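Support request from a user on the community tier.

User writes: "When I paste my structure tokens into the form, the page sometimes reloads and wipes my input. The last time it worked, I copied everything first. Here is what I submitted, just in case something in the input itself triggers the reload:"
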């Protein structure tokens, strides 16, 4: 592994001289560096939110130990570590396949709207929809009506939606409460919220089978954890046994969430994470307004000149 590095014949002076003689290569060089930095930053950002981050720190430590064992000629240790690395990459790809798949799907589903802002009206509508869903959840918690509501985010869950009954209905507390009334046709399963609509009801979700999940958790809680592990969706669960509200995100269940905390978590993950902070939206709106005013002033000046 490390012997191969010594075989690389790279002359930095020749490389820079080649760049100077071919100006177009400077553009490709800058583009190359920019793409690599972007991918590294994106990978670190995604890894920090999952168990991959701890693994990465372990891999860096192993690489350092391997380098030192070669430097100080600890041949047995070096042989063991290099042998492990040869097969370790394949093993890691298999073990962390769900996390890697999620990261690639998120990269593929990223849109320019996240980088340059988005329509404020859609942001406000999403916030209003969250308030309606929180009202419905609190009503069902009081009556101990079991419920499971899934919010689709960047990763599309069309396969989950297709397992249920499509509604494409406007979000309202009355509609949600009515769906989960016991012994009604749609109460058994999950409601999926997508594109500010109740897209489908009675949807079947994958169940989490982790051994570290508490035994007292029911099917709804396991389903909520399952969908949050296989995608970036967020699930809200109302327990019919206790009436407590829980949230599943990134494979983790936050139990017994109160009304204010429920609003705060949903707004943070569904509004702020997607559209940016209110200050950012306000700043973009002011910039647009300033630009429009400047354009109008120029037109007025031109009109006066012509007259």
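"...and here is what came back when it finally went through:"
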């Amino acid at each position: 592994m490390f012997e191969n590095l010594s075989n690389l014949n790279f002359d930095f002076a020749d490389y820079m001289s080649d760049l100077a003689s071919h100006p177009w290569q400077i553009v490709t060089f800058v583009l190359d560096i920019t793409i690599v930095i972007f991918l590294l930053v994106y990978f670190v950002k995604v890894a920090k939110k999952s168990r991959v981050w701890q693994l990465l720190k372990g891999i860096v430590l192993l690489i350092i130990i391997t380098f030192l064992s070669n430097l100080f000629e600890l041949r047995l240790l070096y042989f063991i570590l290099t042998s492990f690395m040869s097969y370790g990459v394949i093993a890691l790809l298999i073990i962390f396949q769900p996390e890697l798949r999620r990261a690639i799907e998120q990269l593929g589903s990223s849109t320019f709207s996240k980088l340059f802002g988005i329509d404020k009206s859609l942001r406000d509508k999403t916030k209003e929809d969250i308030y309606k869903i929180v009202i419905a959840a609190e009503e069902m918690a009081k009556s101990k009506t079991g419920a499971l509501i899934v919010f689709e985010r960047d990763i599309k869950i069309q396969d989950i939606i297709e397992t249920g009954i499509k509604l494409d209905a406007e979000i309202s507390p009355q509609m949600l409460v009515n769906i989960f009334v016991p012994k009604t046709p749609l109460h058994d399963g999950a409601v999926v919220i997508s594109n500010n609509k109740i897209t489908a009801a009675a949807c079947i979700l994958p169940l989490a089978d982790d051994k570290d999940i508490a035994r007292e958790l029911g099917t709804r809680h396991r389903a909520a954890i399952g969908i949050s592990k296989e995608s970036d969706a967020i699930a809200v669960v109302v327990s019919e046994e206790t009436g407590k509200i829980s949230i599943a995100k990134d494979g983790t269940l936050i139990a017994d969430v109160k009304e204010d905390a429920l609003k705060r978590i949903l707004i943070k993950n569904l509004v702020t994470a997607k559209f940016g902070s209110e200050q950012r939206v306000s700043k973009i709106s002011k910039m647009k307004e300033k630009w429009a005013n400047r354009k109008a002033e120029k037109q007025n000046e031109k009109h006066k000149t012509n007259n």
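Agent notes: The reload is a front-end session timeout and is unrelated to the input. Strands lie at 147-151, 165-169, 190-194, 197-203, 234-238, 245-249, 252-254. The chain has three domains: 2-109, 120-276, 278-307. Escalated to web team.
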